[in-house]
Amino acid sequence: MRLPALRRLPGAVIALAVLAPLAAGAAFTAADAPAAAAPAVQPDPAPVPMTTAGTGDFRLRWRNDDRREAAALRRAVNGTDDRVRLGTLLDTQQGRRQARHKCTQATRSGSVLHGFNRTSTDWWCLPRSNAASTDWTPQGISSTEDSQQQGTVDGRKAFVFSWHSGGVGQSGLGTRLSFLDPRNGRYMHVLLVEPRPDGNGRMSYTNLTTHAGGVAWYLNYLFVADTRGGLHVFDMHYLLDLANSPAGSTQPTDRVGRYGNTYYARGYSFALPRIGTWANQGDALYDFASVDRSSPNPEILTGEWCNPSRPNASCRVGRVARWRASDLTDFVGTDPFSGTARARSAYHLPTPYTQGAVSWNGCYNTDKGGAGSRPLLITTRPGRTALRTQRGALGLQDLTLYRSTNRLWTVTEHPDTDNRVRRVLYGVPRPSCP
Question: Is the separation of the CB atoms in 210 and 224 below 8 Å?
């Protein structure tokens, strides 16, 4: 996760206790450390109760409205105004990758799930071309169960997880999403792009660059977190199918956008143009995101990653904010749209180094990375002193709740090294609130 700018101290939450050992075999060891040695730091403070935070910093304004441009690109690339269905994306052969379900290497000594309960934990291992790559790093995660109440899109289930180009802690020069079919582990990369005119009166596009620390799939919209920028918004109805269109090509791999009469996306079979941005208007960070469907009026959560070990750090923990999903889709049916949105509520998180958060009926699950102790999964309710903690995997990131199995899923970011599996999608049973 990229380091955020220094911010003011939340004030209401200062943890003084030192985190105790978690369990036998859970101590942080050299085998668990990232490849790059981190500077010595003090042990992380123990998780503390979530307290109410002000919402003044959580303000967004609609910008970069590119819905007309995205529609023009769909017509130019796909040759029709009809949308590409999720099944077409998942079933396309060209460019398809294959993940392995519960590969045994992930639980071997020194690997990311070593010591985890194999019966209760579920996971997918990525092929080495993606698992060991330092050119791309996974970050956010969501699924069709966030998108629709019935849990499917076009009759299909899928996970989606985001990547930024560049290694851990870098920003890179591009962003992509991967859509994984949980029936068979097949997945497809989709390049995220910004619509742009090509200078000759026709629509093209270029790379979209963001850290993509979180992704929330709500209805047909994908909200991708941009640390200081806010939320980039994509619409699955504008998916560009380059592999199956005479106007698209997957070769060569160094082209992005329109060249002559042909569209390219760095060799990927699909590209997805941004339709707009909920631009940050306050002193807040957008490092992760999720969807809460526990009420008839779904909400989207965004949260902050805080590193208190930095010199002169002005935060002790980050914050999580709740937004009405209907407020973040107000642009529908309005053209042009220049509205604003404000968080409904916000809370200080239980720990620093928070990488993801989900909630269900007021019960929160947050995860913690950071240095000095093993990563944690924390379960609590705001305002209560009781917290439940359990072990998390090294490099865990954004969280999503897979409602049909009541599992929390995340993706781990560190690349595989020395034959140790470190980069996986994994899910654990969602703990109940204490």
Answer: yes
189 and 175 Cβ atoms separated by less than 8 Å: no
Q: Are strands 159-165 and 175-180 parallel, antiparallel or unpaired?
A: antiparallel
Burial status of residue 25 (CB atoms within 10 A of its CB: 0-12, 13-18, 19 or more): exposed
Could you give the CA distance from residue 161 to residue 217 in angstroms, rounded to a whole number?
A: 10
Decide: 299 and 327 in contact? Cβ < 8 Å: no
Q: 156 has which bridge partners?
A: 153
d(CA 126, CA 293): 29
Residues with Cβ within 8 Å of 117's Cβ and at least 6 positions away in sequence, in order, are none
**Burial bucket for residue 346 (CB in 10 Å: 0-12, 13-18, 19+):** buried
Q: Token digits for 393? A: 């995997």
Backbone φ, ψ for residue 149 (5° rounding): -60, -35
pLDDT of residue 350: 96
DSSP helix/strand/coil, 357: strand
pTM beyond 0.85: the answer is: yes
Distance CA 123, CA 113 (A): 9
In a 13 Å sphere around the CA of 190, the CA atoms on its Cβ side amount to 29
Look at the block and give the residue holding tokens 């962003």: 175
Bridge partner residues of 357 (DSSP) = 366
- Cα(170)–Cα(164) distance, rounded to whole angstroms? 8
Encoded amino acid at 97, one letter:
R
At residue 310, the pLDDT reads 79
Alpha-carbon Rg for the chain in angstroms: 21
Q: Six-digit token pair at 349?
A: 């998180």
The owner of tokens 């954004």 is: 398
| Mean pLDDT on 352-381 | 91
Residue listed under structure tokens 């079919």 = 181
- Pick 413 or 316 by higher pLDDT: 413
DSSP state of 322: E
**In 3D, which of 422, 1, 424, 425 has the Cα closest to residue 211?**
1
Q: What span, in angstroms and rounded, lies between the C-alpha atoms of 392 and 351?
A: 14
pLDDT in tens, 254-287: 999 999 999 999 999 999 999 999 999 999 999 9
* Identity at 429, one-letter amino acid code: P
Q: What is the pLDDT of residue 311?
A: 81
Own/partner pairs, 338-342, CB within 8 angstroms, 24+ separation? 338/61, 338/62, 338/65, 339/61, 339/62, 340/59, 340/60, 340/61, 340/62, 340/281, 341/59, 341/60, 341/61, 341/278, 342/55, 342/58, 342/59, 342/60
If you average pLDDT over residues 395-411, what whole number do you get?
Answer: 98
